[in-house]
Amino acid sequence: MENFGFGTQIRKSPYFDATVRWGAAGFSVYNHMYIPRDFGDPEQNFWNLVNTAILCDVAVERQVEITGPDAARFTQLLTPRDLSKMAVGQCKYVLITNANGGILNDPIALRLGENHFWLSLADSDILLWAQGLAVFSGMDVQIREPDVSPLQLQGPNSGRIMQELFGDDILDLKYFWLREVELDGIPLVVSRTGWSSELGYELYLRDGTRGDELWERIMAAGAPHGLQPGHTSTIRRIEAGMLSYHADMDPETNPYELGLGRLVNVEADIDFIGKQALARIKEEGITRKQVGLVIESERLTGPNTVFWAVIKDGETIGKVTSAVYSPRLGQNIALALISAEHAILEDEVTVMMRERPVPARIVDRPFYDPKKSIAQAKVA
């Protein structure tokens, strides 16, 4: 794989060579870095995730580190979610919005210290956004990308594997909390988070020279528990209604359209970019709304690679943003953004799938485990 790819402008993660040894056969690009997307059959990857455990290279989740005396105030400026009660050691799912209330990213925020935050990014250049804002903010902050590369250990056996690696104390780590630890002298931050809606952990490596060592150490500990190398599962994330930036949202999408009003605190005594616009949207209401669809066609052989039009009574009312076949549900399931007036559960619509009309039905989402009881379950 020495000559793989597009040149030095696309970075390789500290785990790149290990993933190739363990069977990665295809990659995509995310945050200017390669991410493994092919370890064989994606349905088998899904079953490995939900039945045992998988280890995923997600070093593409680059960190924006915010430090300095005004770090908390500046981090709040970036997001409409009220962080005033966020404790040291806590993680929160947040949105980053622009002046119009559009979504620029949906990272996990981690608070490592009183004046020390990470934003674990989806696929957009928030480092540049944050550095630009800092210049004109008048606040005393430092914004940089640290040497931090996360792995995701996800699945029902992930707790047992973490116990093998870190001992019984790690089982006390609560959902959406973090801990600074070492493993054989390897510096890590461990959080009980992940992009799977399964029980899982993220391990943030703080020394990129030790990526290969960390990968092999985890795989060895996980072998008795059925751990497999894998990649983030499109099937599982759509089942869970989890959003993918650039697919399900972009700078023209606002939180209320996605049903994420709980992450927008316009009434709180906090300052953030987009506050006036989001207050206006909340008052006036939305014209688009995200819904779930069951597409009643032959089994999809992979996710959609373009946005499919959604039609009602001959009129285009929106688009399918993410679609896949769920082997567990035995259905083609999708997320769609459509006209709010047509977002009526159980209504029938037509999807222009590869320029061919197929019937679909509007349903609620998430499609599976809507209360996220799996991810939040107590680890035995």
Radius of gyration: 21 Å
Give the topology string: H per helix, E per strand.
HEEHEEHEEEEEHEEHEEEHEHHEEEEEEH
Largest beta sheet: strand ordering: 12-13-14-11-3-15
Largest sheet: 6 strands, mixed
Work out the helix count: 9
CATH level 4 superfamily of the largest domain: Probable tRNA modification gtpase trme, domain 1
Would you tell me the structural class of the helices and strands? alpha+beta
Q: How many strands appear in the DSSP assignment?
A: 21
* Beta-strand percentage range: 25-35%
CATH architecture of the largest domain: 2-Layer Sandwich
Low-confidence stretches: none
How far is it from the N-terminal to the C-terminal residue, by CA?
40 Å
Organism: Tranquillimonas rosea
Domain GCVT N-terminal: 17-266
Domain Aminomethyltransferase C-terminal: 288-369
GO molecular function: methyltransferase activity
